[in-house]
Amino acid sequence: MNYLEFEKPLAEIEGKAEELRAMARANKEMDVEKEAAALDKKADTLLKDLYKGLTPWQKCQVARHPDRPHCGQYIEALFTDYMPLAGDRNFADDHAVMGGLARFNDQPVVVIGHEKGNDTKSRLEHNFGMARPEGYRKAIRLMDLAHRFHLPVVTLVDTPGAYPGKGAEERGQAEAIARSTEKCLQIGVPLISVVIGEGGSGGAVAFATANRIAMLEHSIYSVISPEGCASILWKDAEKMREAAEALRLTAQDLLQLGVIDRIIKEPLGGAQRNTKDTIAAVGAAIAAMLKELSGKKPEMLIRDRRQKFLDMGSKGLAA
To answer: How far apart are alpha carbons 206 and 183 in whole angstroms?
Structure first.
């Protein structure tokens, strides 16, 4: 288990409990279960207290936790007959974006998502989930395919933002993001999006301009990272805690503002502590959102999606 900065007291208690049990395994005559159970109870209480009132910055840390389930895990667990499609038919295949044809509860769909990777090698391969222009153009190609064959689109968002490198800018990063966002608004099929970790900047919006948007309880969704915001406003990246507060990037804030439609509850301690239950909860939310949109005509889906974004923020401002 990788512990976050604010979880250090919890790490000490759980570490002591495991240390006692390791000693007992080495010496069968030792009976430490009573002491270990007391530590477990103390750890459970502390875990509840820690996650009862997370600050926006702490939620950022949880959203970025390396052990949270990633796009590939959701696709493997929730979708069947997954057929990945590669390349943008122009330049290359972007491994930060995965997608293809699949079945969800036996319904044909197109699934698209950001993949960060789960170890050093795979994170480098997937560029830490930061897509290049060809990733967004691949997404456009898949959405066109979905529109042509009347297939709902499911997107899984988990990116710090679009890749800011020189080559990406030379190949039209901003234009690719804009066209992907535009394509989201144009397709006449149900489009639902789930923010499973980080929803960073235009790189997230390009996949999440959807009829229905859900966020995991401890995920974040913002126009800029707290560090980037702090660097611009205060010329000091260390002001990221203040920036996280000001950005209103938590699922709870965004639901209040009308930016998202639902919050998917995470297991106590975050998605990283119970991957199986988290994935099941996301699956149930996807099923519910698809059901809400089932049977709607293409022109109605397009109109409602456009109006959703025209109205965005008015709910929170009116309150």
So the answer is: 9
Whether the Cβ atoms of residue 125 and residue 117 lie closer than 8 Å to each other: yes
- Amino acid identity of residue 141, one-letter, is R
- What whole-number distance in Å separates Cα of residue 200 and Cα of residue 205? 8
Three-state DSSP state, 116: coil
In the structure encoding, which two tokens stand for residue 145, read together? 């395919």
Indicate the angle between helix axes 275-293 and 71-78, nearest 10 degrees. 70
Contact predicate 202/163, CB 8 Å? no
Tokens of 195: 């923010």
β-strands 107-114, 153-159: how paired? parallel
List the Cα angle 310/59/243 in 5-degree steps.
65
CA–CA distance from 114 to each of 99, 110, 226, 295, 306 (Å)? 9, 14, 20, 28, 24
Rounded Cα–Cα distance for residues 51 and 265 (Å): 12
pLDDT digit string, tens, across residues 268-284: 999 999 999 999 999 99
3-state secondary structure of 160: coil
- Residue 43 CA from chain centroid, whole number: 27
Q: What does the DSSP assignment read for 190-220?
A: -EEEEEEEEEEHHHHHHHH--SEEEEETT-E
The conformation of residue 188, written as its DSSP 8-state character, comes to: S
Kindly state the DSSP code that residue 186 receives in the 8-state scheme.
H
Cut 0.85: pTM above it: yes
CA nearest 104: which of 267, 265, 289?
289
Residue 55 pLDDT greater than 70, yes or no: yes
If one counts every other C-beta atom within 10 angstroms of the C-beta of residue 235, the result is 8
